[in-house]
Design goal:
The protein has about 325 residues and is of the alpha/beta class. Helices cover about 35% and strands about 30% of the residues. The two termini are about 40 Å apart. The structure holds adenosine-5'-triphosphate.
Amino acid sequence: MISVQSLEKRYGSVRAVSDVSFEVARGEIVGLLGHNGAGKTTVMKIMTGFLEPTRGTITVGGVDVRQDRIGVQRQIGYLPESAPLYPEMLVQEYLMMMAELRGIPAEKRRAALSDAVRATGLEGWLTRPIHTLSKGYRQRTGLAGAILHKPEVLVLDEPTNGLDPVQIIEIRNLIRRLAQDTTIILSTHILSEIEAVCSRVVILIDGHLAANNTLAELLSTDVVRLAVAAGTAGVAEKLTALPGVLEVRPMDGAGGLDRYRVKVESPAVAPAIVKAATGAGWTVSEVAPATPSLEQVFRDLMADHVSRARGKAA
Ligand code: ATP
């Protein structure tokens, strides 16, 4: 449904997006995850035709956004990070104006409006001035405006930003409902948002693609947690040499212990780790299988990116 190929965007000397490629299939909810300034908004603005890429292409439903911006915008509903709502307008006035701007024929506007209002749970709020709405209901109004023309794709930039916990749950439920007939790409820097809503995650770090996987793939790595007495020498070297050990990462140590996360091909490698540790005479406090959290995966990717960047700079 969406294809991003070798995308690059420079703002003067700032390279905001570097050689990013990924695809989104019809019906998916894909999370675009990254720290502040990672390039998420830039990718979304290019995808929705509001910004020209420096290089690369994005197609939506086979239409190249550079060649047919209007054709792409017809297929997309876009909710920018701060949706431009007019505070003095009533909800229905705003939605009618959006329907007109969207080019929906006059005789079809009422039906389009009532479908969007039903989908976003705005019944009963139509005659309220927008400035009297809570942030959550303002966000619903923005979403209703974005789906009036029944787009095949919804692009949502940090849709729960600034909402309270109850509103966050409501908007996430709404996004899941909308996903029943729409392909959705949403950006966030909140890891739990990805776990709550998305089936796949595209991770950007400093404008680079750091991961493009289903959550199951990202979290399926087998890990053994190991804690040994603080100051034990040669742990990473010895364990990395074992068959079936993919990677050894030191973690934050405390309480007189050094902690490691050992990525393994399968949990069956754990006994060999115990054997190597006892054989080397280490004082072992813990060896336990574990599943990495999305936070750990993200931190590992950040650490890899930083050490690669340092390696290049050296
Ligand atoms: P956030 O979560 O803070 O919204 P983001 O991941 O959406 O961040 P972008 O807004 O795409 O990131 O910004 C990516 C980089 O490009 C940042 O370094 C930002 O400062 C820079 N940038 C964005 N817009 C411009 C601009 N108009 N001119 C110059 N630099 C820009």
